Amino acid sequence: MSALALRRLSRTLQYGLLAAFFVFVATPMAVIVVFSFDANRFPTIPWGGFSLVWHRAAFEDPMIREAFVNSVLVGLGTAVASTVIGFSAAYLDFRHSFIGKRLFVFTVAIPPAVPATILGMAMLAFVSRIGLFGRLETIVACHTAVASSFAMALIRLRLDEFGRELEPAAWNLGASPAAALRHVVLPFCRPALIAAFFLSAAVSFDEFMIAWFVGGVHETLPVRILNQLQGQVNPKINAIGTVVLTISVVLVFLARRFTSLRPGRPVDGDDGDRP
């Protein structure tokens, strides 16, 4: 067999494995979406026909509406806090050298590597001791501890493409450190900041284990799904899952969209004054 034929065979096998993996991952999600529009109470084949009855029933449920609002509030709070903390950590790692820098980066990066159950139990023990159990602000803080790692990674990758001499050049031209940060660094990092915002919101909107441990009576939408599953089989679960999946996919798509912007590509509104 020639080298060209081997390359073609290898490429075909790679595409085949990728397609099989995609089908394996996407099929359960597709099933949830399809049966959320099924008129039958229980998922059955053949399909019972298109209907929005379960979506209407889900959003007429006051507990589901409250959980949705909680998820939005927690997601927005987490996205803002994670983006600010992620940028601060990424800029500190990029610009400064100090004793314990590796330990600092390791500390910021480790939360996503800890199993969610262990992390949730640890956070529950901590917030209970300081009297913050069962508050939305507590869920935001705990989600931020995880999502800020992703935000830092995205922004740090962007800063790797930033010329280290640009900021000192702004200082030499008379700009204060704050002005150089505002007019030079932040505009360059804007796509990564926006991507970090959307990705952090997606991480928070999907997360349920930590929210279940520390949220108390304040349920987010994934926690409501979990509680619904613990009771009787309810077709509203498919409708809720479809909404969560749609929002998560949109947030990740937006994060990917801004992550793909390269340094040489103009960003709308990026022509502001320079020091």
Please state the second-level CATH architecture. Orthogonal Bundle
Over all CA atoms, what is the radius of gyration?
23 Å
Question: What is the mean pLDDT?
Answer: 84
How far apart the termini lie comes to: 63 Å
In N-to-C order, the SSE pattern is: HHHHHHHHHHH
CATH topology call: MetI-like fold
CATH structural class: Mainly Alpha
For the sheet with most strands, the description reads: none
**How many domains would you count in the coordinates?**
1
CATH superfamily: MetI-like
Please state the structural category: mainly alpha
Number of strands: 0
The tally of helices reads: 11
What fraction, in percent, of the residue positions are helical?
Answer: over 70%
How would you describe this protein?
This protein is mainly α. It has one domain (54-259): MetI-like fold (Orthogonal Bundle), CATH 1.10.3720.10. Helices cover 72% and strands 0% of the residues. It contains eleven helices and no strands. The protein has helices at 3-36, 53-59, 62-95, 101-109, 116-129, 136-159, 166-172, 177-206, 209-214, 221-230, 236-259. α2 (53-59) crosses α11 (236-259). The protein starts with a helix and ends in a 16-residue tail after the last helix. Residues 264-275 have low confidence and may be disordered.
